[in-house]
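In the design runs reported in the main text, the only information available to the sequence generator was the tokenized backbone. The following block is the verbatim input for one such run; it is reproduced so that readers can re-run the procedure and compare outputs position by position.
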């Protein structure tokens, strides 16, 4: 990564993945032996083990994310809070922390896409694209057009620079772009669609986006697939019913994703296919 990229991406972006190991060591020192024993008694061996495991997974995932970035000369890693960023639209408080999708997880999802999802005729859309990691991963496939929608201007700037940097060392096969826009106001293109969500915002925003997508598809019925992924069981718990209750989507059977070392935790995901005539 060159100096221009490093300076450009550091402004106003508070990365919570940085210094995690140092914070953990400092906390252990502050607790002392007695404090550690008290915590073990309070949370038990299992709870303490899960806490340690979670931190190891975070550190490991961040290491591999930064290694991927160095390979491609980009800055997509990290865990970025939104509260300090400049956001367009009324939904700043309803967005979730920006984290990147691991390459292994994304490729596993793509391997589970049904055969009738034609990449060559579909626009790949990542709603809440953050720094654009998923856009760069999608660029390794046959989508002719890839669009990221992001409502935080600082993240849009970083994503655009990442796209520019990525194609300095990779052959450009797709039209990849980022729009600074609230997802609820985004107008979907008239092509076939693969709409990708990685737990980008809370349910009130998601409901409006799905309504907008359905209205768009009603005006021009065409192939549309939704991918929803999250490392939170609760997010999948409400996202899948929201999509299915529209009466216009079928859920596609998929394999359970394994845990990948380049991911913070195992990702739960689901794939849905639009059926224009399904609802009576």
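Verbatim output:
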């Amino acid at each position: 990564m060159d100096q221009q990229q490093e300076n450009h991406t550091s402004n106003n972006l508070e990365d919570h993945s940085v210094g995690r190991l140092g914070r953990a060591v400092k906390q252990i020192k502050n607790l002392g032996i007695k404090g550690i024993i008290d915590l073990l008694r309070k949370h038990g061996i299992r709870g303490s083990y899960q806490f340690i495991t979670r931190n190891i997974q975070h550190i490991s995932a961040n290491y591999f994310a930064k290694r991927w970035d160095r390979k491609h000369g980009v800055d997509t890693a990290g865990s970025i809070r939104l509260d300090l960023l400049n956001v367009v639209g009324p939904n700043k408080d309803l967005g979730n922390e920006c984290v990147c999708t691991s390459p292994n997880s994304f490729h596993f999802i793509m391997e589970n896409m049904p055969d009738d999802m034609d990449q060559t005729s579909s626009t790949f859309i990542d709603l809440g694209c953050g720094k654009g990691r998923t856009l760069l991963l999608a660029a390794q496939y046959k989508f002719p057009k890839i669009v990221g929608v992001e409502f935080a201007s600082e993240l849009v700037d970083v994503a655009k620079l990442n796209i520019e940097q990525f194609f300095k060392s990779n052959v450009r096969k797709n039209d990849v772009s980022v729009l600074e826009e609230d997802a609820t106001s985004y107008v979907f293109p008239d092509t076939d669609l693969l709409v990708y969500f990685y737990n980008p915002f809370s349910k009130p925003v998601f409901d409006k986006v799905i309504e907008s997508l359905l209205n768009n598809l009603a005006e021009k019925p065409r192939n549309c697939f939704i991918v929803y992924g999250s490392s939170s069981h609760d997010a999948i718990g409400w996202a899948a019913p929201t999509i299915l209750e529209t009466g216009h989507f079928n859920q596609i059977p998929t394999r359970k994703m394994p845990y990948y070392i380049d991911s913070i935790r195992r990702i739960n995901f689901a794939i849905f296919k639009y059926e224009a005539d399904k609802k009576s």
